[in-house]
Amino acid sequence: MMGKQDVPDESVWGKSRGLDPERPPYPLVRHLLDAAAMALHLWDVYLSENQRVRIAEGMGLGGQLQRARALVGLCAGLHDIGKLSGFQFCSRHGVQHLSAELRADSEKMSADRVGHDVAGMAAAAKVLKALGFEEGEELKVTQRMAEIIGGHHGRFHQAPDSINPDFLGGDAWSRQRVAHAVAVHELLGLPAAPESFKAPTAVLVTGVVILADWLVSQETYLRRRQRELEPSLAEHFRRSQADAPQLLEDAGLAPVPLERKEFAEAYGIIGEPNPLQRSVMDELPTAVGAGKRGGILLVTAAPGDGKSETALEAERVLSQRFGTRGYAFLLPTMATSDQMHGRVTKTLLNQSGQNAGLTLVHSMAWLNSAYADDGLEGEAVVTCDGDEAAAGHRRREADMRPQRWLRGSKRPLLAQFAVGTVDQALMAVLPVRHNALRLLALSGKTFIVDEAHAYDPYMQVLLGRLLNWLGAYGVPVVLLSATLPASVSDRLIKEYLRGAGHSAKALRKRVFPAPYPGWLYVDAESGRCTQMSEAQRQEQARARRMRLGVTVERVVHGSQGGPRNRMAVIERLVQPVAEGDGGTALVVCNTVGDAQETYRRLCRKFDRRSHAEGGSVQLLHARFPGDVREERTRDVTDGLGRKGPRPRRRIVVATQVVEQSLDLDADIVISDLAPLSLLLQRAGRCWRHENHWARYGYPEGGGRPTWADGPRLVVLDPMTSGGKVPMQWGEVYSEFLLGATSQKLAKLKNGTISVPDDVQALVEAVHGDGEQFNWDAPDSPEVNAWVAHKGKETAERSMAGLRAVPPARLAQLADLHSLEGEEDEWELSTRLGADSVRLLCAFVQEDGRVTLDPEGKESLPSAPEGERLSAATVRKVMRRTIPVRSDWLHGPDGDSVSPPESWTVHPMLGDLRVLYQPVQAGTAQAVQVGGRTLHLDENLGLVRG
């Protein structure tokens, strides 16, 4: 038992900033008990069964979940023990209430500024020894718990060996650290040290500690508890436990069980599941069997085969077997994520999941129209009390990021259901702050990656590293793809299995051949591989078989070429749509500039009405303001979607934004030459819903135009007959892949592709690891292009390997942050290429006013000194921004795009670039920036001259 002098001194404060200044600060011991109570509740309610089992096993406590639970609570209850240090003197208000005994023992206390996380790490060994953690293997346990304490602000540290001991104070301070720890330890039931503590397990526990700390550090909650301190610590702990459920529910993190409905009702689909979906429903449960540590499922099928619904049916099977809850559904782009978010929303509503936490997870998600302005500012979290910011880092005061729990920075992945870009998940394996929180969020769900073929070698390495960690955590994974080379899928599966404990040597002897169409399931523990039955696979192939007619048109870019001029060919191809029987055509261009010029020429020839006026020619690309792009995407998907109504005639000119996850059906697809896998993706927008309409009827009783006698892809090939890649394409695609695709198309038998039968062989022929030409002419352009392509691919893989955190078998947690970097910096590092910035197009009226619109009706907002802009105003501005390459704005005139002075301290607006376009005679003029002109055109979007 503690002596009287060892009772926790409640003058030691844990929280001060943002609380009632007329009252003493919030005592540290009570904050520690709050966090411990919340960690226990997170264990009971928020963590999935899979997470609880993995944590217990990682502590050597398999089958002893209650012991593991108490130890997680203890880690949370000790997280701020380092605040019993010189930290106490960083708040004038806090110092005023500090006891005389501790003040008297602070004379030698070092003035060195050490984060309380590092101080806690340094003090942990002595504190834990007082709790009985000291013998044998427990020494490693003590070190691991010290790492967790040191990492509770999101960044793990090397064991401190140079901290000035005076910073931790003298004997009185040391005794108080023990007294605080003993108080927490006793109220948790005196948990004994675990048998072991593996590093991946400690990462998850750190995530729980961070989350618990954030939940109980909300300003409103702390101010209420500050006013009503219970007489004893035991009563306080009971109150904290009673408060925890409401805090979790208010944060949107309380899990909601779904009412599992039949297939058609669950997804709002007319008809029965297709053979692929039915196979997952009927055969996957047997393949999963009695597995205990997760597994990885690869689903391959042609575009339009319902892979999304297949994945969600697989999630039902996998989550029930492996004890996960909810899912993260991740895609390549913001546009595809936005659309999938809408589909998942409807699916959850169909299954009584309207109260389930569902978030949209990408860097601009809060600007999506699915989010209302109300509550964007939300609840402040009191996590910064004086020493959290690194030296030299400027604090921005007017933080308008959405702080409601499931919209705030770093939090959306924590929701039960999350839809977003894969980048947000990949940051879990980059050395970014709070990567442990991301791993916690992902480890409790089924992990679904759509369009797995869409990632370059750099991102594939990062995805493989993430799968390695998820394999270690026994997380069920689903990979979806229409055009994934076998070499890539094989590598990803093996990365997952290595994380699950399989040796690299054993895996080198195995291959995991993916059926097409079909699915492949590999059990994490045994490595057992099961494929979709051949009978079901053949049935799926028959049900979706389509003979895609492929026409290659030799084209010349620019103003030359006569009848072979690219625009002349496009005009000839779309003429039946524009002037004949009507129908729908999709023209896919490789660059925004080409798309803008194509749209302009087609409008001039066939329909001078603008998009807003209901013209038959539409334009969609990524260089429109956000609100305009969202509206145009909706218009395009409504017009070419499954349900209709179908327009009588429609020509959509677009860029790559339409080749993934957008549910479009065109009567003909015309595409610039692209790598073969992407051409197949684009072709997947041709006659996509034909089988469904043939069975259930065309929208509003319509049908295909008479000229459309079958699905047809027309490829505009500038490389055939010895041509070259157009200069304006730059490095959009590898010259080798373009050349190999051109050659393969020229050799197509009868000018057709049988979908799905021919797809995988074609993908392997161009994108596979096999040699695709002989080396008799080593200096040929073909070989030079191949060497350049492979060199770039190798460099990207190497770069990703250097940047990623180690695999899950790491020795110390500090290895997760062995590279320095800020969060935004690492967010950019999920993809290689030119950095992007967001550009706002503003308009300078003739009277000098600056407005958001060329008509001069909406002034550019500014905040008076000492005030900040409302969330609605910030949203309005940000929704009008456009992502552009940052190097476009370099040069002597680059400073001309700086934001207004009043925006510079704002965390979002301060990073914008503003294009100030003068308005003359009612028309916005182009502006010279970075050696080129830029201007925003209402119909074309941002035009670069």
Automatic annotation (TrEMBL):
BP GO annotations: defense response to virus
InterPro entries xrefs? Cas3-like_dom, Cas3_C, CRISPR-assoc_Cas3_HD, CRISPR-assoc_Cas3_HD_sf, DEAD_box_RNA_helicases, Helicase_C-like, Helicase_Cas3_CRISPR-ass_core, P-loop_NTPase
Mind telling me which SUPFAM superfamilies this protein's record contains? Answer: HD-domain/PDEase-like, P-loop containing nucleoside triphosphate hydrolases
Does the record's keyword annotation contain Cell membrane?
A: no
The residue stretches assigned to a coiled coil in this entry are none
Against CDD domains, the record matches this protein to: Cas3''_I, DEXHc_cas3
Q: In Gene Ontology terms, what is one molecular function of this protein?
A: ATP binding
Q: Using the record's annotation, list all stretches that form the HD Cas3-type domain.
A: 21-215
Q: Which UniProt keywords apply?
A: Antiviral defense, ATP-binding, Helicase, Hydrolase, Metal-binding, Nuclease, Nucleotide-binding
Q: Which family does it belong to?
A: In the N-terminal section; belongs to the CRISPR-associated nuclease Cas3-HD family. In the central section; belongs to the CRISPR-associated helicase Cas3 family.
What is the designated name of this protein? CRISPR-associated helicase/endonuclease Cas3
